[in-house]
């Protein structure tokens, strides 16, 4: 526990000032986080970041993460992000032939999905910050409240397993408790912030985000169980890897936009 607390304090001391400051330092931070998360995900399948498919994934990820103000770079090249992604798939498939199927079609699918999964989540991290700092803190606090509520309420009252095949310690009571805690945080945001939403609208959106945040956590748990990995990485002592810390938010940030909250 002591190690977890020390790591959390150091990480927050680096993360929060850059998020608050915004601009290019924040974009660089996002690129670093996304690159490490991609490395962690590829490594689950024994794919190296510094390899031909790994570097293709990394380049496409970086292109995918380009903020709106830098879209002119792609426009000058007469290409879109989707076209770069399609080109990457062709290169992946070509590499299966070059390696005589040591890099398989399954590896192509995994690399493509890994890049989209990480890229989509962290792209909307940038988009959420551009919409306003209040939305970043809203997303962070409702996920922290969900995680804390699910943990403590689950330990105190949990009797019915939520999804034991994927995450044996999670309970239905904890799942519901996490949602309730997230809703309480949403009410505080209505009272004390200038977030642009009505109480009913924000409560409904918060319930959905809390649910999908927990689904995001289960998705990563399923990946780790499938590939027999305890943590996605070791970069955050006591917490695991970047993907371990951002798995819920990779679902929440895109949904903030899909639900038209921003």
From TrEMBL:
Transmembrane regions: 6-34, 46-65, 77-96, 108-126, 132-153, 174-193, 199-219
Class of the enzyme per the UniProt entry, highest EC level: transferase
InterPro entries: PC_trans
Topology in the lipid bilayer: Multi-pass membrane protein
Key words of the record: Cell membrane, Lipid biosynthesis, Lipid metabolism, Membrane, Nucleotidyltransferase, Phospholipid biosynthesis, Phospholipid metabolism, Transferase, Transmembrane, Transmembrane helix
Entry's localization field: Cell membrane
Recorded GO MF terms: nucleotidyltransferase activity
Pathway it works in: Phospholipid metabolism; CDP-diacylglycerol biosynthesis; CDP-diacylglycerol from sn-glycerol 3-phosphate: step 3/3; Lipid metabolism
Main location: membrane
Domain of life: Bacteria
Record carries keyword Ion transport: no
Transmembrane keyword on record: yes
Swiss-Prot/TrEMBL catalytic activity: a 1,2-diacyl-sn-glycero-3-phosphate + CTP + H(+) = a CDP-1,2-diacyl-sn-glycerol + diphosphate
PANTHER family (alphabetical): PHOSPHATIDATE CYTIDYLYLTRANSFERASE (PTHR46382:SF1)
Family recorded in the similarity comment: Belongs to the CDS family.
Protein name stated in the entry: Phosphatidate cytidylyltransferase
């Amino acid at each position: 526990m002591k190690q977890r607390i020390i790591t959390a304090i150091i990480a927050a001391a680096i993360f929060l000032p850059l998020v608050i400051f915004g601009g290019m330092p924040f974009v660089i931070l996002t690129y670093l986080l996304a690159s490490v998360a991609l490395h962690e995900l590829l490594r689950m399948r024994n794919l190296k970041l510094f390899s031909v498919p790994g570097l293709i994934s990394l380049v496409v990820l970086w292109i995918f993460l380009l903020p709106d103000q830098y879209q002119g770079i792609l426009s000058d090249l007469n290409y879109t992000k989707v076209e770069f992604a399609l080109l990457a798939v062709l290169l992946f498939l070509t590499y299966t032939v070059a390696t005589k199927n040591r890099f398989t079609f399954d590896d192509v699918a995994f690399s493509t999905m890994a890049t989209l999964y990480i890229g989509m989540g962290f792209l909307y991290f940038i988009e959420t910050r551009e919409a306003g700092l209040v939305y970043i803190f809203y997303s962070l606090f409702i996920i922290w409240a969900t995680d804390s509520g699910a943990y403590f309420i689950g330990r105190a009252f949990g009797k019915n397993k939520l999804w034991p095949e994927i995450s044996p310690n999670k309970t239905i009571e904890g799942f519901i408790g996490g949602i309730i805690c997230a809703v309480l945080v949403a009410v505080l945001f209505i009272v004390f912030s200038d977030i642009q939403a009505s109480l009913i609208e924000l409560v409904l959106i918060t319930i959905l985000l809390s649910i999908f945040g927990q689904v995001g956590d289960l998705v990563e748990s399923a990946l780790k169980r499938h590939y027999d990995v305890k943590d996605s990485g070791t970069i955050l002592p006591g917490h695991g890897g970047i993907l371990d810390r951002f798995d819920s938010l990779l679902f929440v940030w895109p949904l903030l936009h899909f639900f038209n909250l921003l």
